[in-house]
Amino acid sequence: MVSKKILLDEEEIPKQWYNIQPDLPKPLPPMIHPGTKEPVKLPPPLFPLECLKQEYSMERWIDIPEPVREVYRIWRPSPLFRATGLEKALKTPANIYYKYEGVSPPGSHKTNTAVAQAYYAAKEGLERVTTETGAGQWGSALSYSAQLFGVKATVYMVSASYYQKPYRKSLIETWGAEVFPSPTNRTKSGRTVLEGNPESTGSLGIAISEAVEEALNTEGVKYTIGSVVNHVLLHQTVIGLETQKQLAMVDEYPDQIIGCIGGGSSFSGLYWPFYHDKVKGKAPKEAEFIAVESSAVPKVTKGYYTYDHGDTARIIPLVKMHTVGHTFIPAPIHAGGLRYHGMAPTLSLLKDEGVLQSRAYNQLEIFEAAELFTKTEGIIPAPEPSHAIKATIDEAVKCKETGEEKTILFLLCGHGHFDMKGYDDYNSGKMRPYEYPQAKVDEAMMKLRQLYPWINHELSGMT
Ligand SMILES: *Cc1c(COP(=O)(O)O)cnc(C)c1O
Fold first, then answer.
1. Pocket perturbation via mutation, ligand 1, pick of 99, 112, 137, 229 by most ligand atoms within 8 A of CB
2. What is the pLDDT of residues 331-360, one digit of tens each?
């Protein structure tokens, strides 16, 4: 009988996070100031100072503060499951494992970094932090963490989600943060959008502009972020570091490592430690890294690797990443966490270097996969990690055809208890697939080139 659940003792919670920066094949391209056209760093009033330090750190290992580990003990180490039910249903010779991050109180991996950012904000004596949230997973993780350390939190929630996902909003409020539907009248960025379109349902790019603007203009207030940037991704490496120990307990090493990508933080948290094995020559196998996005937001599969803004109001400097354009307004797909227009610069660089593969699925395909997973494994997955489930099923079916006994590892980064509207639509046959057209990506890229003709877009593959 194979063991279903592979658990670690509390002492095995990692004592350090892994930072990939010193191990990248080449340095990250610098941010560029759109006015001076010179390389710039993020301004110190933006992030808590310790986060800013980690953002540019070349230390490979960064100590996890003891008060943060203390909070991690509430749900960490998280379980690694062998997907025996799914394997049986697929009749695959593959061994499938999934690391489950839905066990944190807010229900996703986001809490791993929220706790750290809230701790650093409190240590610096900040009174309050601001942030944005799309579907509400990040907003709830931050609200939960901020109150643990006695810091106030203000959340700009994409208006479409604020009204469509009222219970994520309720969670944010229950943990004590204030939450506003973005765009708001509280900021210049919000007011500008509302003047152009009073009915705007918002986007993550707009909500980021609002949260950043307020932080930069208010004493004792700084900004926190749920994905994309280096310090967030490195906080997530507790996921992969624990998984390595858990797989070793059952004498396994993955042939394939699969995760969904919104901004890239959960998947990076899983694969970075395995990438470290690879560069150190410690990997017993050549593991493949497969990043899965939504075909409604195809920044890696259809977008361009070029300089763009991370926010719609263009407050944040230009950063080189895969993007569908900062003007992107997402279709109302259920995987709210995958609707961001850009991608983590580290993940973008590694994709460009051929270290990672990427693929995209539409929401009908991923809910089909989620349905099979729910019936065979019991846990109701969030729509975002259901993209990884879909890719895993496809790979496991290939193994059946070829007879290969691959070990496949994927990340189940959150549960879907607040996504039942999506399951309702799927169950009643109302769900439609959606693919973002290449022409729309190209149109946004043309606009970008008109804004910044001095960037050598051709070098970024943009024609
Ligand atoms: C936020 C979120 C995502 C997308 O963000 P990443 O930074 O790519 O991980 C995916 N799944 C869940 C459950 C999320 O909360």
1. 137
2. 888 888 898 999 999 999 999 999 999 999
